């Protein structure tokens, strides 16, 4: 009997109302849900793999008990490519001999003095800046077992002049938990500081991808619901049980759902055997992590199938409570009213509830997500109930004035609020997803955007040189000698007391004249800096000072003035162009033991926001994909509703004598609810996006962007109304034929 009921459901699925549309929608939604569940598993696998590799490469410090063992001198520094986040540059050298000095994971052999081992990702990303020769001769590449992920940027450098076991240099005796107690302050890599917590990344996947996929699944399950409600009522009249209706519903949905869910397997198979670079973001996934820690990926097609079939059974059950051979709409209307009643509390929870968590970011996020989930469930019902109330007024107006389209549309939307809810669900959820993506992007990118705005006026045709650690006059002189041709140095010396005395600038005549300063044998006083580059140097590097004292100096004198850390060494081009930053960085690693920071004035403040800027790319990617899924849900839901409405309205051609009634009816029944959903959804979505901002940070939705979104949705509603009228006309012509 069970097999027979499954076969009945399968055959019904082929012949029912909007059968082809529903089958395609079910397959696509199951595929999307499976991919989202698999992505959650892959994210977890990536975080687990990263944590294990980070522990494995964390040094173990030298102790009294390990004095007799071999050790490695270790000093972690940093560097950056132009406009990119910082990455680790670790200086290493054997304490005694290379025979027993441990090497970090991923490094097969000791590089020679003046050689470096770089990660493949860094070599590729820094090719334009000549990164392969920046730290010395390239000795090899870091293996994946020593990297956070295949695309991580990391460099191990063995200085040509050796290293001494003096602070801040540390001696380490091994790497990883097996070697002893980890020295947490010595680990290489910027991932622990830059990466967001796993729960936050999982939240983005759930909110921006999984929720839209579930909306698409729900929309697909309810496509052609009117015919299934009639069938369920007939099964009830024949004495069928809930179990019988469930088996029929499973049989109807099983084939497309199974095909869609298991179609995701090739994507996971590729990720398990190939390192995939994520488009737009640039992140490279680790196939090893997927194989070792991503075994839940194998269960995601099954989980997606079970979820879809369970929802199919649940969505099919309430209709069976009706009595008689025709479905009653009272229960559906009552259910919509209950959900609409919960809409306002859900909006309040999503928008104001996170304030109850105070400064706890995690609890704020959880309360916000719970509130958003309730808003997603209840807002379409709220719009549907409002539309149903307006439909009653529209019906009366149409009857009084003889407007056939208004009369028909008013009667339908007042009697079938569930159909309106299905129609507007995609629009409301799309707006919520869009505003959430915008708010998260604003949260991650606000600091970087503000610093970009502040520094947009900064002149980037000047480079500041900041040697790392203590340097000698001889090393400073060696660096000045290696500056590329056409680049000239100057040194800024602040006043001894802030606000008291002159700011001294020293340099050769070529440099001083390039900055529009006098070059005289004796010090000269300048009260106003005319060159923009000099103005920026003074703005970011000195405090106070009553005037500018210009001193002509040769390279030997400049080398002596470079050594004090309070002074600022800067390099400009004599012709006013941009200095050769890449060459200046490479020269610093030849002259100074630990190299030097080379950046334009104020760039260090901008660098702090770059990780958040990069995180924002994930939000934009997920937001676009989520909006695409929801647009698909809107289209599929609309087509299913149009087909049913077209069949119902087809006989009206005999009474009205034409097809004009379909256009007016579609305008009232399709365009008006979608337009109302767009307007209400924008307001609610913007309001519920406010808690995403960090405590104390204001969040405002740009008015122009809001207007653009509403305009686009109104245009979509008009197009869908015309589409509905066209489908109804085709149905009517077929009926008359």
Overview of this protein structure:
The chain has 737 residues and is an alpha+beta fold. The protein has 24 helices and 14 strands. It has helices at residues 2-15, 19-57, 120-125, 191-194, 198-222, 225-237, 242-262, 265-273, 287-293, 300-316, 330-352, 361-401, 404-415, 417-455, 473-481, 509-514, 532-541, 555-562, 581-591, 603-607, 610-649, 652-656, 660-688, 703-736, and strands at 59-61, 72-80, 86-94, 115-118, 137-141, 154-158, 170-175, 462-467, 487-493, 503-507, 524-526, 548-552, 568-573, 596-599. The protein has a seven-stranded mixed β-sheet with strand order 1-7-2-3-6-4-5. The longest helix is centred in the middle third of the chain and has 41 residues, at 361-401. It is elongated, with a radius of gyration of 34 Å.
Helix content class: 55-70%
Biggest sheet layout: 7 strands, mixed
Radius of gyration: 34 Å
Which structural class best describes the helix and strand composition? alpha+beta
The side-by-side strand order for the widest beta sheet comes to 1-7-2-3-6-4-5
Strand content: 5-15%
Mean pLDDT: 79
Question: What is the 3D form?
Answer: elongated
Number of helices: 24
How would you name the oligomeric state of the polypeptide chains in this document? single chain
Catalogue the unreliable spans: 319-328
The N- and C-terminal alpha carbons lie at a distance of 40 Å
Q: Could you give the count of β-strands?
A: 14
Concise synopsis of the structure shown:
The chain contains 24 helices and 14 strands. It has helices at 2-15, 19-57, 120-125, 191-194, 198-222, 225-237, 242-262, 265-273, 287-293, 300-316, 330-352, 361-401, 404-415, 417-455, 473-481, 509-514, 532-541, 555-562, 581-591, 603-607, 610-649, 652-656, 660-688, 703-736; strands at 59-61, 72-80, 86-94, 115-118, 137-141, 154-158, 170-175, 462-467, 487-493, 503-507, 524-526, 548-552, 568-573, 596-599.
